[in-house]
Amino acid sequence: MPHGSCFLWDPQLTSLHVASDLAVAVAYFSIPLLLLLNRQYIDAQIRPVLLLFAAFIFSCGIGHGLRIWNIWHTSYWLEGAWTWATAVVSLYTAWELRALVPQLLNTHRDLITVRALVEQDPLTGIANRRGLEVALTALAYQAGAVEHTLLLLDLDGFKAINDTYGHSAGDQLLQAVAEVLNRQVRTTDMAARIGGDEFALLLVGCLPDEALNKAEVIRQEISQITMPQLPIVSRCPLVSASIGISSFTADRGLTHSYQQADAALYAAKYNGKNQVKVAAPVAL
Q1: For position 172, which CATH number holds?
Q2: How far apart, in Å, are the Cα atoms of 228 and each of 194, 224, 238?
Q3: In the listed set 86, 118, 150, which residue is the last one of a domain according to the structure?
Q4: What Å distances lie between residue 113 and 94, 105, 106, 108, 133, CA to CA?
Q5: So what's the pLDDT on residue 256?
Q6: Which of 84, 118, 152 finishes a domain?
Q7: CA angle, corner 122, sides to 156 and 250, nearest 5?
Q8: Which domain holds residue 191?
Q9: What is the SS3 assignment for 72?
Q10: Residue 170 phi/psi, 5° resolution?
Q11: FRET label pair with 76: which of 51, 136, 153, 227, CA 20 to 30 Å apart?
Q12: Do residues 280 and 263 lie in contact, with contact meaning Cβ atoms separated by under 8 Å?
């Protein structure tokens, strides 16, 4: 009896095997095709191994095609020879991958580490401007009308600390401010230093009233920062903070929200500093 001809006694069983083997073959053929279409993005170092992998996958696809063929035919030698060729290619590919896989995994780990460093402020340990932009961009792809809040914070009197006691004292003060922000963020929020003595706080799913209360707590805690190593320890505050608040949803413009928070921050500075200003709601 020809290989697989027993299926012919049941047309539904025959259709099941033909359709499943054909679908698997198409899936196998699509992987080498995708690699071919994107070959310009493949690093030269791993190109030979990917070519072997593509050959193995392509060979598996042909093998499934032969299984369909042999439902009606008796090409046992052909199917067996092709299976043997597939086994040889797969074993050789696995041998080549044994040294490459650990290297690729280490490279991936290093890329994650580098990305974390790129998005982190080295002085304070919180996110930097790039990290904040990445977080804001991620929010832009979220569905729904969940309201978020952005706080922009600028220190009042920071330049005087730098000019009088040097940049080392200024750096310590920036680290103390970052600690205040870290105490006020939840796991879903983000604190960032976006440049000099400017900070930002992204509060995910936080309503303006709640954000206003949090901003006031932050302002008060910053005004209570002391640095015992300085001779002006008795003078408090060393610095104060002006804060601008803007709320937004993912389906509204993030750029406009940032500009609103910046305008509110400028208003807080212009009206005497050491205060919190809330931007007008974004018009729908």
Answers
A1: 3.30.70.270
A2: 27, 12, 11
A3: 118
A4: 28, 12, 11, 9, 18
A5: 79
A6: 118
A7: 75
A8: 129-278
A9: coil
A10: -65, -40
A11: 51
A12: no
pLDDT tens for each residue of 48-80: 777 877 888 888 888 878 777 777 777 777 878
Tokens of 159: 């330049």
Q: How do residues 113-162 score in pLDDT, each as one tens digit?
A: 545 557 888 899 898 988 888 888 777 766 556 788 899 999 998 988 88
Query: Which tokens in the block code for residue 247?
Result: 């709320």
Report which of residues 264 and 92 the model is more confident about.
264
Span 226-255, pLDDT tens digits? 877 776 554 556 789 999 999 887 766 677
Q: From residue 181, how far is each of 216, 247, 254, 277 by CA, in Å?
A: 12, 18, 22, 18
Distance CA 65, CA 72 (A): 12
Instruction: Retrieve residue 69's tokens.
Output: 């063929």
